[in-house]
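hey team, just a heads up i'm posting the complex here instead of the shared drive bc the drive is being weird again. everything in one block, sequence lines first with there labels, then the predicted structure for the whole assembly after. its three chains so it's a bit long, scroll down
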Amino acid sequence: METTPVAPHPDYDLLRPIEQPGKSFYYIVAVLLVIILYAGVLYIRQVYYGLGVTGMAQPVTWGFYIINFVFFIGISHAGTLISAILRLSQAEWRRPITRMAEVITAIVLAIGGLHPIIDLGRPDRALHLFYNGRLQSPLLWDVTSITAYFTASTVYLYLPLIPDIAILRDRGVKPRWLYEFLSWGWQGTEKQHKVLNRAINILMVVVIPIAISVHTIISYIFAMTVQPGWHSTIFGPYFVVGAIFSGIAAILVLMIVFRKVFHLERYLKQVHFSYLGLLLLVMSLLWFYFTFSEYLTGYYGHEPNEMRVFWYKFSGDFAPYFWAMVCCNFLVPLILLGNRRTRTIPGILVASISVIIGMWLERLIIVVPSLANPRLPYPTGIYIPTHTEWMLFLGGISVFVFGYMMFARFFPVISIWEIEEGRQESAKAVSERIHSYMPDPDESPTKV
Amino acid sequence: MMNKKLINSLQVLSISLIWLLFTGIAVWILNLIKESLRLHDSPDASVGISLVAIPVFFTLSSVLTYVFIGLRKGRKKDDEE
Amino acid sequence: MKWGMVIDLQKCTGCGECVAACKLENNVAIVAPKESEMGRTMLWMDMLTVYEGEYPRLRVRQFPRPCMHCDHPPCTKVCPVRATYKNEEGIVAQIYPQCIGCRYCMAACPYTVKSFNWYKPEWAPGIRETTNPDVSVRPVGVVEKCTFCVHRLQKAKEQAKSEGRNLREGDFQTACAESCPAGAIVFGDLENTGHRVNHLSHSPRATKLLEDLGTEPKVIYLKEVD
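-- predicted structure starts here --
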């Protein structure tokens, strides 16, 4: 299959943002850079004065930074995991989605991975992890698994990008050296396709367990302690489900944004939203199931310390957040996505945003109440994040938007060659596959 | 053509850097095991984790190298556009 | 050798002398009132209050709370850089220059005994000159807690060595034990049958905080008997 360009490229819609970037790109980038710069200044101030500039205190010693760490890493599960599962299950409708999902992972993971460092009281000593680290600490498990996931997902993003980079190289898009360098001499020969497909197949199998391990291990940070509300065996799968849940919501929001901004209606059709919307609904139900099991076992056991945390969430200081979370993560998606008439693109957008907010609240509800209710009778205040913490949160989101825009500026957000491959081969492959599941017409031996 | 040579050597350099990175990670983990043995600080846990982690990193770099070499070998014989 | 402490709640009057003595002995920073209201008070030895029952049968109990120096400390396990560890004499120690300030040990401690240096510690001009030269002043961004006055142990050991004898019971006392006017705090070697703590820790009144967690604290409380 050749990728030599013909004058008007059939997928020119996907190339336009790279070849002819609009002016608004620069305006948005400027605004984002200002926010990022401001957040950076606040961070330097925090390093200078100490963590006292945050709202954290004793006993709530972990706040926004750890919450956002868990939240961002959760969002990152969108990408590679979903894309790998869809590729593995040979879902043909995946073709325009996988790239977008993988980019989320790579960017958000880098942001999320930085959060524990932002949270350090002594970031200047972060290198102690390298020469005096202790592999028995769950934090070191995290360092290892996040590094593995980040490298794996970057490779998994990069390899399927090579043929598209070659398209851009062949079209002479500037900066030429970049595309020349990254395309690794791709010419689209049969042998090259074979090598690439084999590598992608290996990677998608490797990447799924790594992705699951990452969020499991993040839950272990909490579950490995003996604190009420944290010390739970279902935390691993509970976090993984929550991560995939928030990840799908993030993909949906991005798909809707790109569809609108880049006019990708031809590529991202109702069916993609409808399928992913249903997946989001399933994850919502699964999330509810886990939440229900987690709290029911705590409640029924009625261990006094566990109950203090329980009531703190159900009717105490955190009740507004807790019930908002239940609405955002369960009721809203259930109503909007469970009903065919509201399972439209605007409906899905509302549900997805609601899920993202809800999942952030879930992280808040997991981190803070257990710390705010120590076992011994201490006076406890309430954790109120400061301006610094809010701005660093906003800064993190800005870095994400900025990173995504930079990616979309230089690379196609929808895989051109996979769409092309789909056009040429999918119909045949699918009909053959269907043929293979169906009962054979009769007993007489026929040629398959 | 000078430019092509430069890009070519940069590509080789980048793939070597990836190997260097992953070897560095492996050395780091081995160093942590050594440290935990020295301090009697649950070396069993460290060994267990490294048994999983190190092969993962080397699988990744092997896959990348496989693609890198595979794409070069798979190029058309005549080097014309 | 296994250093431990026995606190007799029958004798404790809740006067708070141990809290003050500890603070002075260990150069524990004094935070501004506003910070203190936020919950950033730094106390290695704290006096906790428990309210039992309801009016008119309300009963207020107070008890001093140092670090428990658990035999199975949940805090040392989670430290990513070995900035906290249990030494061979059973003391759970902090290594301030090693701590990266992740505060994982604070989150993992079921007794919530650790304090964090949210800001650089500062002393009023007069107090600065009276800081204890034997105890290092902690920098900003690290976790600290009760060390069983380990600096006194070092001194006592050197003294005993120079005199060519073994450590005696009275040689090493923590500041809180020494200062307690009611003699409620007794400190010593739990494994040495000659020490009072060994004897007291076998008292029928002996109890440990949150014993069911299996942390095996080396601070033992003697219950009040009414």
